[in-house]
Amino acid sequence: MSKSEFKRKDNLFSLCGLNCSLCPNLVRGNCPGCRAGSHCTTTCQFAPCSVEHGDVDYCFECEEYPCKHYDGVDEYDSLITHFNQLKDMEKAKRIGIESYHEEQLIKIEILKKILDEYDKGRRDVFFCLAVNLMEIEDLNSVINEADDLAENMDLNEKSDLMKQMLIDCASKRGISLKLRKGKW
Fold first, then answer.
1. 171: which residues sit within 8 A by CB, 6+ positions away?
2. pTM (2 decimals)?
3. What is the pLDDT of residues 42-85, one digit of tens each?
4. Where residue 184 falls among pLDDT bands split at 50, 70, 90?
5. What is the DSSP string of 12-75?
6. Which residues fall within 8 angstroms of residue 170, CB to CB, at 6 or more apart?
7. Distance between CA atoms of 179 and 78, rounded to whole angstroms?
8. Which are the contacts of 65, defined by CB distance < 8 A and separation ≥ 6?
9. How far is CA 41 from CA 28, 34, 153, 163, in A?
């Protein structure tokens, strides 16, 4: 079996635990989704494994999960953060994929608001990272405060304000809002 036989129905949450719905490529409209022939599956070690194990939708459905493919998987990032990859996979397994999707849909709406109202066109990767790593309550709190403070600001000022507020809030939670470059 090969990567060309790989099929996915869920473009919100990947087979391996990435929040694809919060990926800058998907947000930009440059992602065909997690399917045979896409950029992600041509480099993915999980796609052929899924096919070999009966087309599991999420790795946690496999009796071998977590397997050797997860060794060091959350140490480096690609365009999307891998930092919470294992944690998010475990959460989806624990609460169920439908409940996990509900949270993702809320985060998608938060991301859309930030991009529509606070992005000057160059911070989508940063904003995707922040929404991916931060809790919904913190994101809503930052947005509410920023909305009040940014009322008379131009877009550049609003974008700078939002970035700094997200950094400050994340820092208080011990979250670094920087992609980690490395082998992934």
1. none
2. 0.88
3. 677 888 788 888 888 899 999 998 889 889 888 888 878 889 99
4. very low
5. SS-TTS--GGG-HHHHTT----SSTTSHHHHH-SHHHHHHHTT--SSGGGSTT-S-GGGTTTTS
6. 130, 133, 134, 138, 176, 177
7. 8
8. 59
9. 19, 7, 42, 32
Buried b / exposed e over 78-100, threshold 16 CB at 10 Å, is bbbbbbbbbebbeebbeeebeeb
Total residues belonging to the chain? 184
What tokens were used for 174? 């011990």
At 176, list the tokens.
């670094």
pLDDT tens per residue, range 5-43: 667 778 889 888 989 889 888 888 887 666 656 666 667
Q: What tokens were used for 86?
A: 């294992």
Q: Is 40:132 a contact under the CB 8 Å cutoff?
A: no
